[in-house]
Design brief:
299 residues, alpha/beta, Arc Repressor Mutant, subunit A, D-Maltodextrin-Binding Protein, domain 2, seven-stranded mixed beta sheet, two-stranded antiparallel sheet, 11 helices, 41% helix
């Protein structure tokens, strides 16, 4: 038995289904089912009754839920208590982010905090930069305490404290010699004849772009999918492909052969700093959260 199994078990209790719990915990449904099956095998009891698509607690499962909730609560309280005595860890901010740190001024904000924080304390920034699915998984598992993510289509939103950081507007990105550059603005129907490259499905940007096409009744499949927006721009510099990206991610200095064109109807994405409401933070992470809250947000 491990803590993740208890968290998965409680997520199923809360949502009433394996699929919804898997979405909330950012793992696959098959992985969730395997973990619960392993837990039931170890305990020698059935925790759930499964009837078609619905899941119900057994009598022993309802009792086990009380112990699971107490265990998770005590574990979080223990970590917070120990943080006060572990110097390195209590001075550490465990921060996860989607790959926007250099594009959204995050590094400068972190530097500002460390420069003005207690001069007698060594601040440790333990930053994990990854796709949103992975960042959210780390947040739920406790590998990180706060995260910078896109809140569009964020599952289980009521579980988070959310501090908005930036509203980003999408643009079309293409080579400067592309036929579409003669247009002042672009609609989804203008894009149909041209090959589309996109960030892959682990990125919320992929979902936002697909929804934008669906709104116009346009079916547009990507020719190429990649995990990094800078790879997209490399592709566009020497091809006839196009993509849609938040404007802040487009580096026209590093990629001088590409350009951007506004969209006829605004497509946006919201980036925010988030933390779990039930997650207690060490002092330095609380101070960082409060510092971030007071800083002016980028346009």
């Amino acid at each position: 038995m491990n803590l993740n199994q208890l968290k998965y078990f409680l997520a199923i209790v809360k949502t009433g289904s394996f699929s919804n719990a898997a979405d909330d915990m950012y793992i696959s449904q098959s992985s969730m089912s395997k973990q619960i099956k392993a837990l039931e095998t170890e305990l020698g009891v059935d925790l759930f009754k499964r009837e078609h698509s619905k899941v119900y607690l057994t009598e022993i499962g309802a009792e086990f839920a009380k112990y699971a909730e107490t265990t998770i609560k005590q574990h979080n309280e223990m970590l917070l208590y120990l943080d006060e005595f572990a110097t390195k860890k209590s001075n550490t901010i465990r921060f996860g982010s989607i790959p926007v740190v250099s594009s959204y001024g995050i590094s400068a904000l972190i530097a500002d905090f460390t420069n003005h924080y207690n001069p007698n304390l060594n601040v440790v920034i333990d930053m994990h930069e990854n796709n949103q699915q992975r960042v959210m998984k780390e947040l739920f598992e406790g590998t990180i305490d706060i995260a910078l993510v896109r809140t569009d289509y964020l599952e289980n939103i009521e579980a988070f404290d959310i501090m908005p950081y930036k509203k980003d507007i999408f643009v079309l990105v293409c080579n400067k010699n592309h036929p579409l550059t003669v247009k002042a603005s672009i609609s989804p129907t203008d894009i149909i004849p041209y090959p589309l490259s996109l960030l892959d499905t682990s990125s919320v940007i992929n979902t936002i772009v697909r929804k934008a096409f669906e709104k116009y009744g346009v079916e547009k499949r990507a020719k190429c999918l990649t995990t990094r927006h800078k790879i997209l721009m490399e592709i566009l510099q020497t091809s006839n492909d196009i993509t849609l990206l938040p404007y802040s991610l487009v580096d026209l200095h590093q990629f001088p052969h590409i350009t951007t064109i506004p969209l006829t109807e605004e497509v946006t994405s919201n980036v925010a700093l988030i933390k779990l409401k039930n997650r207690k933070l060490n002092k330095i992470t609380k101070d960082f959260w409060n510092f971030w809250q007071k800083k002016p947000k980028p346009e």
